[in-house]
Amino acid sequence: MISEMLGLWILDYWGVGWANWLLIIGIAGVGGGIPPMIERRRRRVLENALPGMLASLSDSIGSGQGMQQAMQNIVMTQDDLIAKLLEQALDESHSSTFEAGLARFAVMTRSEQVQRVIAIMGTAIEQDAPLQEILYKLSLDYERLNDLMNQREVDLSGRSLLIMMFICVGLPLLIAFLVGLFAPWSNGFQLGFLNNTFALFFCAVSMYSVAVSGRMLGRLRDVLWFLPIWGFIGTYLYIVPYHLIGG
User: Fold this and answer.
1) What is the DSSP string of 18-86?
2) Domain spans of the chain?
3) What is the pTM of this model?
């Protein structure tokens, strides 16, 4: 019933039943590709909140508070993810040292950007450097860095989406319309070999375009999970419209 509703029987009829297996692999791949997306979004939330945390620490230290007290103020005044992780790390540091708590906080964020900042803060504390000035400059630097990263993300996301929509969706539909209009199977045209070749072609170029889009965004390893499902979509969007138009 599901196969008939989705039109998957058409793929078997036109000799591209292998695409049904590609769908099964693709569904499993989507399950593997979602966790990296969630993790990346979590990491970016932390990194975007980092400049505000550094500026708050700088203000608190400038008013005469110590580093540990300044971090406690962040825990009490903020209600975001970075404050919750900091609270957990500080609670665990009661049984060890404050430096160990900072190291634990850096590990829990799983962000290279945050870990780099914590390492700089630890070095500044050891060298008895002017923390207020260092934290203030770090907040400005990382605010500019995150603004550039967010702007780049927006620009490249639009371009990568355009590539995927054109190659994975627009191109198969266009070719299916042309072939179905000028060589309809209902008039006796035998295009089994041609359709199978086109199906393989659109499967390959769909996966390639998704890989290129992921490489543009610096997330090639994450999008590899989604290649089978996009290969199926490219095949499906050629065979099914050709069947409908040619009939």
Assistant:
1) HHHHHHHHHHHHHHHHHHHHHHHHHHHHHHHHHHHHHHHHHHHHHTT--HHHHHHHHHHH--SHHHHHH
2) 2-41+150-246, 46-145
3) 0.79
**Length in residues, the chain:** 247
Q: Where are the alpha helices (DSSP H) in 165-191?
A: 171-182
Question: pLDDT digit of tens for each residue in the chain (247 aa)?
Answer: 444 545 565 665 555 667 777 788 888 888 888 888 899 999 999 999 999 889 988 888 888 888 888 888 888 888 888 888 888 887 877 767 778 888 888 888 888 898 999 888 888 888 888 888 988 999 999 999 999 999 988 888 888 888 888 888 888 888 888 888 887 767 666 767 777 888 888 889 999 999 999 888 888 888 889 999 998 888 888 888 888 887 6
Residue type present at position 94: H
- DSSP 8-state assignment for residue 93: G
**Is the separation of the CB atoms in 108 and 92 below 8 Å?**
no
CA atoms of 243 and 204, how far apart (whole Å) = 21
What is the sign, positive or negative, of the torsion defined by CA atoms of 170, 176, 179, 184? negative
How far apart, in whole angstroms, are the C-alpha atoms of residue 192 and residue 3? Answer: 21
